[in-house]
Amino acid sequence: MSTQNIQLWEVFIRSRNGLAHKHVGSLHATDATLALQAARDIYTRRGEGLSIWVVPSDSIVASDPAEKGMMFEPAMSKIYRHPTFYDVPDEVGHM
Amino acid sequence: MSAASISVKESPLVLYALRRADDALILGHRLSEWCGHAPMMEEDMALANMGLDLIGQARELYTYAAKVEGADNDEDKFAYLRDVRQYRNLLLVEQPNGDFARTIVRQFLYSAFADLYWCAMTASKDKTIASIASKSEKESAYHLRHSSEWVIRLGDGTEESHHRAQAAIDDLWPFTGELFHSDESDKALIADGVAVDPESLRAGWMKTVSSVLHTATLKGPATTWMQKGGRSGHHSEHLGHLLSELQSLQRSFPGATW
């Protein structure tokens, strides 16, 4: 069986309560149920997860790498957006 | 072949543990034969995972059997140094992999039983067996879910996949009677609440199997004639070949480690 024409899915795993789901990879499956099972079998074999999301890869809208100049470079020069110009008073303690 | 077979003092409890351990080891080994050969990488992993679950169950049961027997045996000796006639597994689990449909149907028929069996065995009066059951039950529940989903997709898939799945059901069905069989050796264990009477699981098994087959547009065969013999060491011709591969290293190089 060739996997060429089988739907591609992106897999997100949440490793612990309170953390966000994180992209871990992709897989082929014919439908959502089998995609979830395959994700379990491939990406949680070493106890990595408490929760799995699978999303059809073609449902993801991605930025165009060719536009990275326009998209991301303008932010590079704006270091004042980083909260590093403030002195935190000692009384505040650990932030 | 230079390592001789061990002898085993099969008290009812030792025999009981060995029978379940052998089921798990042989089915686990069958699944391991798919490693690198499954129709797609995702399923290669799924089959290997199930195989590892089963081999893990076998190890715990062999270790317990060795402890109860109190002789010089251990999990490795039970697995590697018993002859085909000393193996006590169900005939169902030693049947060859065949095509993917056959492997899935075999897994489904077994897991539909194992899921109910391990659930019931969590209430065993034998604390070790109850603890093995509680771990195995979660594994079997997943094996049942995974194999059920595939039975449905193969049965209700293409004409070709339906045909192959139905052929597997028809051929493997006569091996399912043995799932519910118990003998003299089991009776006292059942009476003492150490073991569950497998016959009491038949209705639940039939309900699960019928429901999945119906969804899969497959038919349970009308035949009621059933094969038996595995529990007393009378196996099909396939088990000897499986064991020759499984045991070749330890038979040729006794005690080899790496």
TrEMBL record, chain A:
Record's superkingdom?
Answer: Bacteria
According to its UniProt entry, this protein's organism is Bradyrhizobium erythrophlei
Show the Pfam families listed in the entry.
PaaB
Name it: Ring-1,2-phenylacetyl-CoA epoxidase subunit PaaB
